[in-house]
Amino acid sequence: MTKHYMKYGLIISVLLIVYFLVLRFFNLHTLTVLSAFNAVIFGFGIYQAITNYKKNHTKFKYEKGFQAGLLSGAFASVLFGIVMAIYMYHIDPEFATTILEGWDVNLSNGPLTLIVSVLIMGLATSFVLTLAFMQLLKDSWNTNQNKPN
Hints:
InterPro entries: DUF4199 (IPR025250)
Protein name: DUF4199 domain-containing protein
Transmembrane segments: 7-26, 32-50, 70-91, 111-137
Order of helices and strands: HHHHH
Keywords: Membrane, Transmembrane, Transmembrane helix
Organism: Planktosalinus lacus
């Protein structure tokens, strides 16, 4: 299981980093509305993690599928948070102030606020998407009408 969620968590985080760098290249990285596409990237990776886990296991349990999706998203959130911390503290220290100007808050520790926000948003997105995908991918408890319960 560990290799499984680490593999898909790494894929998700690489896609998030590439998306951020593309936005940075076009100087659109300060538009926070574009971070909504991160949910699409999380959704793609979590769906792939759950379906791949289901395909490779004959007996698919709900909790194992939920664990595969949630841990993939959590691992990706932590990796992306680390990359964003490096970016905000070492590469572009003005990035945090630029983002926080749009939030209309006066905080002395802007990068830490953004890193915590990235982690919370990533974990929340992972949780919600995993719940949604597990409703689609779980085995049905409905029985055929010709068979006894």
